[in-house]
Specification:
This protein has 134 residues and is of the alpha+beta class. 31% of the residues lie in helices and 33% in strands. A hairpin with a 3-residue loop joins strand 4 (108-117) and strand 5 (121-129). The longest helix is centred in the N-terminal third of the chain and has 18 residues, at 14-31.
């Protein structure tokens, strides 16, 4: 019996809590009328994604939203959550996505960032940053 308890003991790892927060944000967007078209979109190979990575991509009408999710333990950590280097990687990922998905070329583009403090403190920053040209 002890073996079974240890075997099935559930522990939420940082990786799993990150997946949970991304899921919560995708559900948030769906509740607000968006359709999720990609999740964990990577434009590189292996662990390195030199062109960028996007947590998820959503669309609504003629708008495509590239979303980044940041989970932190307290509000003060959000000030350092999204560096300019990360913004460049997200923009590069968006650019690569748009080049390979020509059917979205006439859509307006938006970059949103979700700041999450578990369990359910969600803050969505619409148009958190912009890209001059794709």
């Amino acid at each position: 019996m002890k073996y079974m308890k240890e075997q099935y003991k559930s522990k939420i790892t940082p990786y799993n809590s990150g997946k949970i927060t991304e899921f919560i944000c995708r559900m948030y967007m769906r509740i607000h009328g968006y359709r999720i078209i990609e999740k964990n979109y990577k434009t590189g190979s292996g662990r390195n994604t030199p062109l960028g990575e996007i947590d998820f991509i959503a669309i609504k009408k003629n708008k495509i939203v590239f979303c980044e999710v940041k989970k932190r333990k307290n509000k003060n950590d959000f000030l350092r959550a999204l560096t300019s280097k990360q913004q460049i990687r997200i923009k590069n990922g968006a650019q690569a996505f748009m080049k390979t998905h020509k059917n979205y070329k006439n859509y307006s583009i938006q970059f949103d960032v979700f700041f999450i403090i578990l369990p359910f403190n969600i803050r969505r920053i619409k148009n958190a940053f912009v890209m001059n040209k794709i």
